[in-house]
Amino acid sequence: MMAGMTIGQLARESDVKTDTIRYYETLKLIEPVDRTSSGYRIYDTSSAERVAFIKRAKSLGFKLSEIQSLLELHASNAGTAQDMLDLTKEKITEAQKDIEALMNMKQALEALAEKCPGGDVPLSDCPIVTYLRANHKSTGGGEDGTKS
Questions:
Q1: Would you kindly state where each structural domain of the chain is located, as residue ranges?
Q2: pLDDT digits (tens, 9 = 90+) for 40-91
Q3: What's the topology of domain 1-79?
């Protein structure tokens, strides 16, 4: 990798779009190390390492605001492994809640799919459409909004 990279080179090296690099800059997640005389941003290998860090953290469910805190914690050397463990456990709890919400969504979709006759039944008679159009406060239906 080159010592001095343009935004396009950094984007290609990091497998992100140049707009992503610019967005990360607005959030102060990364900064160019220099600018050319014509104003082009110049980045170095540490910029690519930060983008890789951001991508890995995002893949683990960290929000960009949380990633900013992680980067600041790391840069300041003020944090401990316990701090990171605590943050990771919070992410595990969030992931579990997300999994439960997705499972509930899946169950509701399966219940609706079971009630739908398919075929040439008019869309207006489809229980899925009926559910989607229903005022859930007054349907009196089950968790999936359909009557059992």
A1: 1-79, 88-135
A2: 999 999 999 999 999 999 999 999 999 999 998 888 888 889 989 999 999 9
A3: Multidrug-efflux Transporter Regulator; Chain: A; Domain 2 (1.10.1660)
Reading the block at residue 131, the tokens are 């559910």
Take residue 102 and report the two structure tokens written for it: 């997705």
CA distances from 141 to 3, 91, 102, 122, 146 (A): 63, 34, 20, 22, 5
Name the residue among 78, 135, 131 with its Cα closest to residue 108. 131
pTM listed for this prediction: 0.74
d(CA 85, CA 91): 10
Residue-wise pLDDT for 116-133, tens only, equals 999 999 998 999 999 999
Among 31, 27, 102, which residue's Cα sits nearest to residue 66?
Answer: 27
**DSSP 8-state secondary structure symbol assigned to residue 5:** B
What whole-number distance in Å separates Cα of residue 130 and Cα of residue 91? 37
H or E element at residue 35 = strand 34-35
Torsion 112-115-121-127 (CA) sign:
negative
